[in-house]
Design goal:
With 196 residues, this protein is mostly helical. The chain has one domain. Helices cover 86% and strands 0% of the residues. The chain is built from seven helices and no strands. Helix 3 runs antiparallel to helix 4. The two termini are 20 Å apart.
Length: 196
């Protein structure tokens, strides 16, 4: 009972902390929904923007990893950090230089991930038979079907899939933030818990 009261007090404190930021939750949620819709309408452009963003992030990470490797050159792990920096830099450069091939590679990786992950999820759920295991099995089958569809449609699927996935993610993330902001707006301002 003490743990439940402690948990409820912690939740009340957290809600009190974010209650005054409900407008920011709404604004960010609406912005993400709009950005997601733009990604869905221009999924090819969104795909290439995603590949270029990943390329730039890898290049920036390579610079920091290289600086770290140089600053710790006397350490035994120097060559591993140097190799990591070089691999990140080369991968980032290749994604920026050849975004179409980068989109194809990332889509190929994701299709493989969906197939392997879906098989493990479906088989694992069927073997373990935990409560409501049918949903996990169904989820695994859907993942396998998505991976097979991506493989079947390669290379055409590599041009649109990443933009579609990013757009859907933005829309769902934005919707959850809007829902949180509206819930906070509808709730009365919470009193500061005693002893806080």
């Amino acid at each position: 009972m003490v743990e439940k009261n402690s948990l409820m007090s912690s939740i009340a404190t957290e809600l009190h902390e974010i209650h005054h930021s409900r407008g920011w939750f709404l604004a960010l949620g609406i912005a993400l929904i709009v950005l997601g819709a733009v990604c869905l309408l221009g999924e090819i452009t969104a795909t290439f923007a995603t590949v270029l963003a990943i390329g730039w992030l890898l290049l920036i990470a390579a610079v920091f990893a290289l600086i770290h490797a140089v600053r710790t050159h006397t350490w035994g792990g120097f060559f591993l950090h140097l190799l990591s920096a070089v691999l990140r830099g080369v991968t980032g450069f290749l994604l920026l230089r050849y975004p179409l091939a980068g989109a194809l590679t990332i889509t190929l990786f994701l299709a493989s991930f969906f197939i392997v992950g879906g098989i493990f999820r479906a088989v694992g759920a069927g073997v373990l038979r935990f409560p409501r295991w049918g949903w996990a099995t169904f989820s695994g089958i859907v993942s396998v079907a998505l991976g097979v569809m991506l493989f079947w449609q390669l290379p055409a699927s590599s041009v649109w899939f990443l933009g579609l996935a990013v757009g859907i993610d933005f829309i769902f993330d934005g919707t959850s933030l809007v829902a949180l902001g509206l819930a906070l707006r509808g709730a009365p301002a919470l009193q500061q818990p005693a002893g806080a």
